[in-house]
Structures are given as C-alpha cells and as structure tokens.
Design brief:
The chain has seven helices and no strands. By secondary structure, it is an all-alpha fold. The protein has one domain.
Length: 193
C-alpha cells in the first residue's frame, strides 16, 4: 500500500473492497470478520492460493503487450525496493516518489535489455504471492489457506503454522528475510539464463 504513494494507496483501497465483497459473498455461517477489522478486507482474498493463480494469470496477460510488461516489472521492482528497505534503518529509506522513479528507471532498463516473457512475469507474480501467503501463515494471525473450501463450518478459517511467531523486530522474521535475500543472486542468475 505504500510502495508508490497515492497510486498504490488507491489500488489498495480497491483490492480491500474486492476482498471484503468476496468475504461477504462467500462466508459460511461460522465465519466472523476475522483478522483486524471484521470486514474481510485484510488477509482474506489476497491471501488465498486461488488469488495467487488469478494474479499470476492477470500479470501474464498484461505482459503480452510491452506497456503491460513494463507496468508489471515496475510494480515488482517497487515491491522489491520496499522489501530491501525492511532490512535497513528507517532513516535510509526512500520516499515513495523516489522509489517510484527508481522502479520506473529499473523497469526501463529491463524492457530495453530484453522484455521478459509474459509467462515468466506471471509465474513470478504467482510465486511471490504464494511465498507472501506462506510467510503470513507463519504468524499467529494465519491465512485462509483452504478457501473456498469449508473447514469446521468456516470458509475463511485462518490456518496458522504450528511454529507461528509475531512479526516486527524479532529474530525469526530477520532470519527469514535474510534467507530470502541470500537466494536472490541465484534466482537472478537462473532468470537471466
């Protein structure tokens, strides 16, 4: 929601509204509002495996045209910068305008060198969402992994890892973050080849 300032803030509001509508339309009798606000807007629709597949397909279809591919790359770079900034002190972080410009410049370089294949971008988006969902599964709040299936009278059952930990300044989150970042050069090398 903060990666590109007002642009992603508006998109976030739209996605939260769609998630809330999906929660209201598909909730089972045992479902309550769930995590945080009780409306189904947070950690609901976007934290499901079907949503990862749909978003991956949408990114792949968008990337069939070079403008769509550039937008997908821009969004991915913007999110990557936000993720990298989580490893830095707050004073070293970019404001949203600078982050958007750096992401746009990076997207321009990528598009100039070699436009990514639409299937690759679709897989990257879907895989990134799955990794995010699994990361949130490791927290006490959990995620609706079984949606749209019912479990114990609830369609939006929040599944939690048996070794869940809180997020924020904890050693577990730092270890996971650095393990993911350490694999980045390998993923980049495989992508280039």
């Amino acid at each position: 929601t903060r990666s590109a300032g007002p642009v992603t803030a508006v998109l976030s509001r739209c996605v939260r509204a769609a998630s809330s509508a999906a929660w209201r339309a598909t909730r089972a009798p045992g479902d309550d509002g769930g995590y945080r606000d009780g409306t189904g807007a947070h950690r609901h629709l976007t934290h499901t495996l079907p949503a990862a597949v749909v978003c991956g397909l949408a990114a792949g279809v968008a990337a069939l045209h070079w403008v769509g591919a550039a937008v997908v790359v821009w969004v991915l770079l913007s999110l990557a910068i936000c993720g990298a900034e989580a490893c830095t002190p707050a004073r070293g972080r970019l404001d949203w305008g600078t982050r958007a410009l750096v992401s746009a410049a990076g997207a321009g370089v990528v598009m100039a060198l070699a436009q990514p294949h639409p299937a690759l971008l679709g897989v990257l988006v879907a895989a990134g969402m799955v990794v995010h969902v699994l990361g949130d599964w490791l927290t006490p709040a959990g995620v609706p992994l079984a949606w749209p299936l019912c479990h114990r009278g609830r369609r939006w059952w929040m599944w939690r890892s048996p070794v869940a930990f809180k997020t924020g300044d904890c050693w577990q989150e730092t270890a996971v973050r650095w393990a993911c970042w350490s694999g980045t050069p390998l993923v980049a090398a495989l992508t280039v080849t």
